[in-house]
Specification:
The protein is α/β, with parallel strands linked by helices. Helix content is 37%, strand content 16%. The chain is built from 8 helices and 8 strands, in the order βαβαβαβαβαβαββαα. The radius of gyration is 16 Å and the shape is globular. The relative contact order is 0.18.
Length: 210
């Protein structure tokens, strides 16, 4: 894995759900609580807004030694020299993104089936985001993944796996002992009144994943 990235507590941002006045505050507080990766997701921003936000957030992640992953937008990831890029199944192929972005960068991809996971591994992905495991308001178009499918993926695929979709302190224990590498969370951290405390609680719980 590039840079031996710690995927255990993977924050995905959503400015519509955050409890703070600014996204920068939310990210800073989440990292203070133990988030190990930050993915910047800006579905409704213009390219300039996305870029400006990425520059601002990257100052925080860099100062804390936490990798910044850009959701979907290879151009933004390159423009700010982000640590990585996260792709969906309908985005650029991993091979094309890798050719442009470089071998030293992290490229992850969302996968909902074993066949998608196999393809991701063969194309050189660095990690998988497997889900959605539960219904979630942030990804209404995401397919549901059964625990059985997750375990099939884990058994066959050697890539690090982060589960996504409806993961919170209530649903997290279902993944204890599954051998996954981390959890990807949005509202379970960013929407909480005390973001730092929420992140710290989840950080303590993810120790039981493996």
């Amino acid at each position: 894995m590039k840079k031996n990235i710690d995927l255990s507590l993977y924050l995905v941002t959503d400015r519509d759900l955050m409890s703070t006045a600014t996204l920068e505050e939310a990210v800073e507080q989440a990292i203070a609580g133990g988030c190990t990766v930050v993915q910047l997701r800006e579905k409704n921003a213009s390219s300039r807004e996305f870029y400006d936000t990425a520059v601002s957030v990257k100052k925080i992640t860099d100062s804390c030694g936490v990798p910044l992953i850009i959701n979907d937008r290879l151009d933004i990831a390159m423009a700010v020299d982000a640590a990585g890029l996260h792709l969906g199944q309908s985005d650029l192929p991993i091979s094309a993104a890798r050719r442009i972005f470089g071998d030293d960068k992290i490229i992850g991809i969302s996968a909902a089936t074993l066949s998608q996971a196999r393809q991701a591994q063969s194309e050189g992905a660095d990690y998988l985001g497997v889900g959605a495991m539960y219904k979630t308001g942030t990804k209404t178009d995401a397919a549901d993944v059964t625990m059985e499918e997750l375990m099939r993926i884990r058994e066959e695929i050697s890539l690090p796996i982060v589960v996504i979709g409806g993961i919170n302190k209530t649903t997290l224990p279902a993944f204890y002992g599954t051998g996954i590498d981390g959890i990807s969370v949005v509202s379970a951290i960013i929407s909480q009144p005390d973001i730092t405390a929420a992140a710290a609680e989840l950080k303590d719980m993810v120790k039981n994943l493996r």
